[in-house]
Write a structure and sequence with these properties.
The complex is a heterodimer of chains A (221) and B (477).
Chain A: H1 4-14, H2 36-49, E1 53-57, H3 60-74, E2 78-81, H4 92-99, E3 102-105, H5 112-122, E4 125-129, E5 132-134, E6 139-144, E7 158-164, E8 168-169, H6 172-179, E9 188-192, E10 197-201, E11 204-207, E12 214-220
Chain B: H1 8-21, H2 24-40, H3 46-62, H4 64-77, E1 81-85, H5 88-101, E2 106-109, H6 113-118, H7 120-126, E3 130-133, H8 136-144, H9 160-170, H10 180-197, E4 200-203, E5 207-209, E6 214-219, H11 223-227, E7 233-239, E8 243-244, H12 247-262, E9 269-273, E10 287-293, H13 297-302, H14 317-321, H15 325-328, H16 339-350, H17 367-371, H18 378-390, H19 403-416, H20 419-434, E11 437-438, E12 441-442, H21 450-453, H22 466-476
Parallel strand pairs in B: 1-10, 2-3, 2-4, 4-7, 5-8, 7-10
Antiparallel strand pairs in B: 5-6, 6-9, 11-12
The chains are: A alpha/beta (221), B alpha/beta (477).
The complex binds iron/sulfur cluster (SF4).
């Protein structure tokens, strides 16, 4: 018997071809923003429209001070942090010790189940870096891998992202070129724009249906 | 799920009655439509952007088998498994067996129209594996045992009172409330436990990128991300037309889809999987299985015109703008697809005989065509399906019309082409037609044309034809 695959493809190939139409190449967004400050401004404005909170600090020690402020305001007791190249150098466990916040990392757990229990039930917030940001829509781009586990930016009710300003790009295409340039692509890549939300109960919009209710971005630089 | 596409008239009447009692049904599609306009305004040139969207979708159909092969090759190189299914049954059987082999007690599902189409939930339940719909709207209609009212906002028609009662009875809500936010949090609590414990996740696919073997999902809630992060097994189900050539094309469609759907520049989450989790990663699936389903598409594909229906990217703009959908709502269409997109897809999918009223329930106003980012010519397809039906097309099971109707139109065609016949025909039939006129309007008619007048009125035929009047005027002067 012919396999389903061969049968389906065979049927498609046997069908009459249609003529290809021309496809206009279009400008991707209205006046794509250029220049560092302009991109920072656009990114910030766009993310605020989606109720994201954006702070800007000069350097990483200021970023840690900002985190301390946020931890106080939000009453954070236990946080789960990634170990990506933005967050790891900040040495957040030491930071947590100094202000009485318990800092957990995926590597601290014996296995997947313990880690899941913590990220779902214990963490008050997830703190991550971001590989990219896109000015076009106030979007974060995260390559999910061993140092950037998927659930940290998703399961806790608060997501705090630390983003060096030189990671902001104008449009998605510039990011995709960089993510998909190598032979091995990341298992998952995600664009995040603001909190988790829904309009499914009579069109009433609200935030935090499954994922974070609040997204705070600290721009560094 | 029962397919009721042949009960359109009854369902539409019920739909209108219900919509009257629930005014928000009228406001939400309008509201979404307005948000769409605002969202589109951020594109430099909407017409051009839509033309490119239409071009991409046309290109996909031109090269469909080749793109699917390319996608399969790259997805497998990324470490994904690819399973092809000719029919809904084959797909369901495969997924259920896999869930059984993996020892799944329950399954979490991200929002996906295709798993509704194949009726996966029923089969899982029959096999003792509980499927949990995790998109809030889908969750609500699953608890209600209902079907989607709208392809993007499935529970649009459900009132807060109904949701309160449902959640109290079936979702462990403790305190009754009518606040949509509180209701949402009750669902959050309930579903969170499912996300946490799940070992088997099922999602749909918005786009499958041939160039990289990547699958892409757009969503606002995060339920799809959970289904792709927490379980050990991820099954992503797509129909074969979901493929797009390149990542650049995918980004363009993503912009169009988000804007046309809800007016957003981009949906809250866009997740892109190229294979399962990698060595050393603590979450994400051990295995990613992509199920490519035909279920009638390759048959539609044989017909170069009907093929156009496969361009759809499920943005729902045509539903929100359709004057018919706005009156009757989504349940009138009798199955999971509704509005103009359902009207172009269901007839060739289910057969022209089972969808008789579906492709006729249109005034051909073309509002759908004017908003479609995929370049679908809905009115053209409706006319095409009607013509196939009248000529008893074999492939799509056209029914042919009753002989009296066929005869009438033959005579009609003859008469309108011949002035002499037309004029004498009018004078001959005028007294019979005008018998139905009361107070200067014909509201009803007995006999074969009765049906037409059920929902329409006509003025009576004038006492004199235009030509007669013209002659008289000329004589006077
Ligand atoms: S037919 Fe066009 S407008 Fe309607 S849902 Fe599909 S892509 Fe959108």
């Amino acid at each position: 018997m012919q396999s389903a695959r061969d049968e389906i493809l065979g049927r498609l190939k046997a069908a009459r071809k249609t003529k290809p139409r021309d496809m206009p190449d279009v400008q991707q967004s209205r006046d794509p923003v250029q220049g560092k400050e302009e991109m920072i401004r656009a990114f910030t404005g766009m993310l605020r429209l989606e109720t994201g909170i954006v702070h800007r600090v000069e350097n990483s020690s200021r970023a840690k001070e900002k985190l301390t402020e946020i931890a106080k305001e939000e009453g954070l007791k236990r946080v789960m942090v990634s170990t990506d190249d933005v967050v790891a150098p900040l040495d957040l466990p030491a930071w947590g010790n100094s202000i009485g916040v318990q800092v957990m990392r995926s590597g601290d757990f014996a296995g997947r189940d313990d880690y899941k229990d913590a990220v779902f039930d214990i963490a008050d917030a997830g703190i991550t870096g971001a590989d990219f940001a896109v000015a076009e829509s106030g979007t974060l781009g995260l390559i999910l891998d061993r140092d950037q586990p998927r659930l940290i930016s998703l399961a806790p009710i608060l997501h705090i992202a630390i983003v060096p300003v030189d990671r902001i790009f104008s449009v998605y295409e510039q990011v995709m070129e960089r993510v998909f340039k190598k032979d091995t692509y990341p298992g998952q890549f995600v664009f995040i724009t603001g909190p988790s939300m829904t309009g499914d109960i009579q069109g009433h919009l609200f935030k935090g249906i499954h994922g974070p209710r609040k997204v705070i971005v600290i721009l560094v630089g | 799920m029962k397919i009721l596409t042949d009960a359109f008239n009854d369902l539409a009447r019920k739909g209108v009655e219900k919509a009257r009692a629930r005014p928000f049904l009228k406001t939400v599609p309008h509201f979404l439509y307005q948000k769409r306009e605002i969202g589109l305004a951020s594109l430099p040139d909407v017409a051009e952007a839509h033309a490119r969207g239409a071009g991409i979708r046309a290109d996909v159909l031109d090269r469909l088998p080749e793109l699917l092969e390319e996608f399969e090759k790259n997805a497998m190189a990324n470490g994904a498994k690819v399973f092809w299914a000719r029919t809904a049954e084959e797909a369901n059987e495969y997924i259920v067996n896999l869930a059984r082999e993996r020892g799944a007690e329950f399954v979490i599902k991200g929002k996906s129209m295709v798993t509704e189409e194949i009726g996966l939930n029923d089969l899982l339940s029959e096999n003792g594996i509980k499927p949990w719909e995790c998109d809030l709207g889908e969750f609500i209609i699953q608890l209600m045992d209902s079907t989607p009212y709208h392809i993007i906002v499935p529970a649009l028609n459900v009132t807060v009172e109904e949701i309160r009662d449902l959640f109290m009875a079936k979702a462990g809500m403790k305190e009754p409330t009518l606040d949509p936010v509180e209701l949402g949090y009750a669902a959050r609590l309930f579903l969170r436990e499912k996300f946490h414990r799940a070992e088997f996740g099922v999602t749909g696919v918005n786009m499958a990128v041939a160039e990289t073997g990547t699958i892409i999902n757009l969503e606002n809630e995060g339920n799809i991300r959970f289904a792709k992060s927490s379980p050990r097994t991820q099954v992503s189900v797509m129909t074969l037309e979901k493929v797009v050539p390149t990542m650049k094309d995918a980004m363009h469609i993503m912009r169009l889809l988000s804007r046309n759907c809800s007016g957003q520049k981009i949906s809250a989450y866009v997740s892109m999987d190229s294979g399962p989790r990698k060595e050393g990663e603590i979450d994400g699936p051990d295995e990613l299985v992509i199920v490519i389903i035909d279920n009638g598409r390759s048959r539609i594909y044989q017909d170069p015109q009907a093929r156009g229906a496969l361009r759809c990217i499920r943005c729902s703009a045509c539903l929100n703008v359709c004057p018919v959908y706005r009156q009757i709502g989504g349940h009138a269409y009798g199955w999971i697809y509704s509005g103009p997109m359902g009207q172009v897809l269901m007839p060739p999918l289910l057969g022209l005989d089972r969808t008789q009223d579906i492709y006729r329930a249109s005034t051909l106003c073309g509002a759908c065509k004017s908003v479609c980012p995929a370049g679908i010519d809905h009115p053209g397809l409706f006319l095409y399906y009607r013509s196939l039906d009248v000529s008893a097309d074999q492939e799509f099971r056209g029914k042919k019309r009753p002989w009296r109707e066929a005869l009438f139109f033959k005579l009609w065609a003859l008469a309108v082409k011949n002035p002499w016949m037309w004029n004498s025909g009018i004078s001959l039939t005028r007294p019979f037609i005008n018998k139905n006129s009361h107070d200067g309007v014909m509201r009803r008619m007995t006999g074969a044309f009765g049906g037409w007048f059920k929902t329409r009125d006509l003025p009576p035929v004038a006492r004199k034809t235009f030509h007669e009047k013209w002659k008289e005027t000329k004589k006077k002067h």
